[in-house]
Give the backbone structure.
Amino acid sequence: MNLFQSITSALDNALAKDPTAVVFGEDVAFGGVFRCTVGLRDKYGKDRVFNTPLCEQGIVGFGIGVAVAGATAIAEIQFADYIFPAFDQIVNEAAKYRYRSGDLFNCGNLTIRAPWGCVGHGALYHSQSPEAFFAHCPGIKIVIPRSPLQAKGLLLSCIEDKNPCIFFEPKILYRAAVEQVPVEPYNIPLSQAEVLQTGSDVTLVAWGTQVHVIKEVAAMAQEKLGVSCEVIDLRTILPWDAETVCK
């Protein structure tokens, strides 16, 4: 599978396993602009995979309500650049729901997916990487995968996690490369970085698309400068794996 197919596979698994799970967003019913939800409406019906109005605040607000009511909400923001109208709902409502109610209520079953990062021709409204804005907000988890295999396992972990999660998908990687990805569900733990390459001189930390750039840099540093680089894929931006990085 390539990355967008692994996302489709993860959503398929989630919808099959959990009868309360719903997938919604702008244009998801016909498959979405990147085809990540293709075929899911035909398989699971229009009550479980459906389009929303063009209103990001409404999409996330609706998702919070669905999650508080006990169902599993999987919301799509069509591009990460357009997540900002929903910033208040994410930071002031979703992230604080459990705290403000003294653990009587929570919206932990909410996952927000969004295509993320630059593609080289997206200009300013289709190339942003807004994870830093959310990385300072306790109560939400932020995850960015580097590959198809990682994407499916991490997305399923986000959907099953009992905290609201934002899952940013590097759009330039959607069709970049294929990997062997299991059709059946599997999980990759959140908040666990992965050491991709050991090294003795310097530690390089990256996530998403930049992991591939940093691996090239590490190879160049070794070849041209004799510098031994350790390469770490952070994977989860919040809460990040400080222990692995410090070690």
Notes: The chain has a mean pLDDT of 97. Residues 1 and 178 are 5 Å apart (CA to CA). The first strand starts at residue 22 and ends at 25. The chain has two domains: 3-176, 194-240.
